[in-house]
Amino acid sequence: MPYWMDNSFFALVGLVIFIGLLVYLGLPRIIGGMLDKQIAKIETDLSEAKRLRQDAAALLVEYEQKRIAAEKDAQDIIASAQEEANRLTVEAKASLEELVTRRTKAVEDKIAQAESQAIAEVRARSADLAVEAARVVLSDEMNRNGGKIIDAAIADVSTKLN
Question: How many domains does the chain fold into?
Fold first, then answer.
């Protein structure tokens, strides 16, 4: 039996005709164009991801600098408040001793009244300092939590890009 009468020969001829028809109709060019578009889209996505990563890194640096500055400000405020409290305590003690030495037994009730007033002022100032210290501590805590929020945002960006 000659080879052109074999089923495999006709299958080969059909395949060659089919491939020739695909080439004639320009299917490789169409497929190539589609692949080129997909490559361009992927390259655009990659460049956008790089830009977003750089933006996130810049924001991280900026917020880290702000956090450090806020911590320094908080430490300065605490130190200033402690110095002021010490100064007020020294002043209150000095004025109290001066009042005690100048007054006699005849004006004990006035001394008691002045002493009560001085203690109330110290307590009020101490309460104000305690409130200020609490504000500073809370501010510091918010700054630390701000860093966590930024880290969470960066992690969120990286998961959305993948």
Answer: 1
Question: Which amino acid type is present at position 18?
Answer: F
| CB-CB contact of 157 with 56 (8 Å) | yes
- Residues 34-93: tens digit of each pLDDT: 999 999 999 999 999 999 999 999 999 999 999 999 999 999 999 999 999 999 999 988
Tokens of 51: 């830009």
Model-level pTM? 0.36
Q: What is the DSSP string of 9-29?
A: HHHHHHHHHHHHHHHHHTHHH
Q: Which residue has the tokens 């409290």?
A: 85
Which DSSP letter does residue 106 get? G
Which domain range does residue 137 map to? 3-161
